[in-house]
Specification:
Helix content: 25-40%
Shape: elongated
Number of helices: 7
Largest sheet: 5 strands, mixed
């Protein structure tokens, strides 16, 4: 495999110093930015980061064999993480946004057939193939925007069996980009279709 040399980024964000423990307070503003920065990668592993002139000298005898990406004028960051997603579902509730803009409450929307139960119904009625296609499309969009890791909740089952299956179904387990997934069981929602707040399951 050829080395990968990402060169001349306007800003290379390293987040240096945040590996041992999360940065807090004023330290969060220190992103470890290298101006005109470059990255040298071997076999999928970052070997070196630094100013472009330094890495050019360091790997001068190997530049000809490397695949070069010119990142001039761009920002290079570590892969982004989305720690809360509901990846596997069907249907759309975009029209509910208009209802909210006109003053409808969530309970009013749910009692009109919308809300989480609309998504639950659509998800239960969707085929595995449809759920797979939609889940893959969403993951592809994540990658396109620089998100390399997502936490996928079970979300829309409203029962133990359907929530569990949303984590083990082919729509998740057979997704080509499954390596970017962290799966999490989400205990059944406390809301029932009739608006009751009686819990339908135990917390996880």
């Amino acid at each position: 495999m050829r080395p990968l040399f990402i060169r001349r980024a306007r800003q290379l964000v390293t987040l240096a110093g945040g590996s041992a423990a999360p940065l807090v307070k004023e330290k969060m503003s220190n992103l470890g930015i290298i101006e005109n920065g470059s990255v040298w990668i071997e076999n999928g592993v970052i070997v070196a980061v630094g100013p472009d002139d330094e890495l050019t000298r360091q790997f001068a005898d190997r530049l000809a064999e490397a695949e070069v990406i010119d990142a001039k004028g761009k920002t290079v960051t570590p892969g982004l993480i989305d720690p809360h997603t509901h990846l596997v579902y069907a249907g759309s509730r975009e029209h509910e946004w208009t209802m909210r803009l006109h003053g409808a409450t969530y309970m009013e929307i749910m009692n009109a057939g919308g809300g989480i139960h609309a998504t639950t119904k659509a998800t239960r009625e969707a085929s595995e193939e449809a759920l797979y296609d939609e889940s893959k499309r969403r993951l592809d969009q994540f990658l396109l925007h620089g998100v390399t890791t997502v936490e996928a909740k079970s979300g829309y089952g409203l029962s133990l069996s359907t929530k569990s299956s949303s984590l083990t179904s082919p729509s998740v387990s057979m997704t080509p980009t499954r390596s970017m997934l962290s799966q999490r069981f989400l205990a059944p929602t406390p809301f029932r279709p009739n608006g009751s707040t009686t819990r339908t399951g135990t917390s996880a």
